[in-house]
## 1
Amino acid sequence: MKRSSMSGLEQMSLLAAGKVPPPSIALMPGESYGTVDLSVKLVRPIPTGVRLRGEGKLMNLSRSVAISQGRIVDDSGKLYAHATCTCMILRPS
Ligand SMILES: CC(C)(COP(=O)(O)OP(=O)(O)OC[C@H]1O[C@@H](n2cnc3c(N)ncnc32)[C@H](O)[C@@H]1OP(=O)(O)O)[C@@H](O)C(=O)NCCC(=O)NCCSC(=O)Cc1ccccc1
C-alpha cells in the first residue's frame, strides 16, 4: 500500500534525531546525557516526497539539565512538527 504521509512515530523519530544541537556539543569529555522528556506536536501531516529540514536549538543549559527545541519545516518554511526535549547531563562520579 502506498502511503501519502508519515506516521506519528516516524515524525517523532525524525524530531528526536533532529533535537540538534544535541546537548553533546556542550559537554565536556567524559560527560554524556540522557533524555528525560520529549514532547512532540504534529501540526500537519507530512506528505511523502517532500523535502524537509530539521532545525534545532539548545534553549538552555544548566549544570544538570539541557533543554532543546526542534522543528520540521519544508523548503517554504511551512511548519509540520515541533518538539521540546529535556536531557539530564550525566557526569562521571
Ligand atoms: C488534524 C490536526 C491534528 C488538527 O488540525 P485542525 O485543528 O483541524 O486544523 P486545520 O483544519 O486548520 O488543519 C491544520 C493542517 O492540518 C491539515 N489537516 C487537517 N486535517 C487533515 C486531514 N484529515 N487529512 C490531512 N490533512 C489534514 C490541514 O490541511 C492543515 O494543513 P495546511 O494548512 O492545509 O497545510 C492537524 O494538526 C494534523 O493533521 N496534524 C498531524 C497529524 C499527523 O500527521 N499525525 C501522525 C499520525 S497519522 C494520524 O494521526 C492519522 C491522522 C492524520 C491526519 C489527520 C487525522 C488523523
## 2
Amino acid sequence: MAGSFNLQNVVDTYKSCLSENKEIYIKYYIAGWRELVSFMNSLGSLFSFISKDAVSKIQIMETFLMGENGAHYLTVQSMVKFELNNKLVDFTQSGSHPESGCRTLLRLHRALRWLQLFLESLRTSTEDSKTSIMCSEAYNESLAQYHSWFIQTAARLAFRTLPGRDAFFEVMNAGSQQQVVAMLGEATPLISEVHQITEDLYAKNKLLELP
Ligand SMILES: CCCCCCCC/C=C\CCCCCCCC(=O)N[C@@H](COP(=O)(O)O)[C@H](O)/C=C/CCCCCCCCCCCCC
C-alpha cells in the first residue's frame, strides 16, 4: 500500500488551489492529482490503465505550465482566456490542437466530480459499507457517461478489487477513522468549490463538451 500517501497533503493542495479572487492555480490542481495517483498506484496492476491516463493528462498540463507560454497557464481562468483568444482549442475532432489545456483539464475536471462524490460517500459511510460499491456509484453518476463500454467494463472490474473500508481508511494515513472522517469533511467542500468554479467557467465559455 502507498507508503508516502497522506490525506493531509491532498487537503493542503486543494487549500492552495484558490487565489484570493477565486482563480484556480493549475500548479496546485495538478499537484492534487499527482498525490491521488500515488495512492492509486498502490492499488494493484488493474488500476494501471487509469493511472497511466491520469499521468499523461497531468504531464500535458505540466508541459504547458513549464513552456514558453507558461505564464498564461498560471490559473484555469488565464489558460481559458489565452487558449480561446489564440484559437488553440479544437471544438471539433478534426482540429489541429487535439491536446489543448482546456480539453485536457476538462477530462480531469470530470474526474474531480467522481472524486467529490466518492469522498463524500466515504465520509458518510458506515462500517459495513463497501468501497467498491461507493466507487462504482460515484463513477456511474459522473465519469461513466463519457467513457466507452470497454473502458467502463475495465474500470468496474478494477473497482471490484478495491480494499475494504477499514484498509482504505488506513492507507489514507490520517489517524483514527474519526480523524479520517473529519479530514474528509475538510476536503470535500474544497474540492466542491474548485469543481463548481471550473464548471461555471467552462459553461460560460461553452467548453463542457470539448471532443
Ligand atoms: C483520498 C484517497 C481516496 C481516493 C483515491 C483516489 C485516487 C484516484 C486517483 C486518480 C483518479 C484517476 C483519474 C482518471 C482520469 C480519467 C480521465 C478520463 O476520463 N480519461 C478518459 C478520456 O480521455 P480521452 O480519451 O478523451 O483523452 C480516458 O479514455 C480514460 C482512460 C482510463 C479510465 C478512466 C477510469 C476512471 C475511473 C476513475 C476512478 C478511479 C478509481 C480509483 C480507486 C480509488
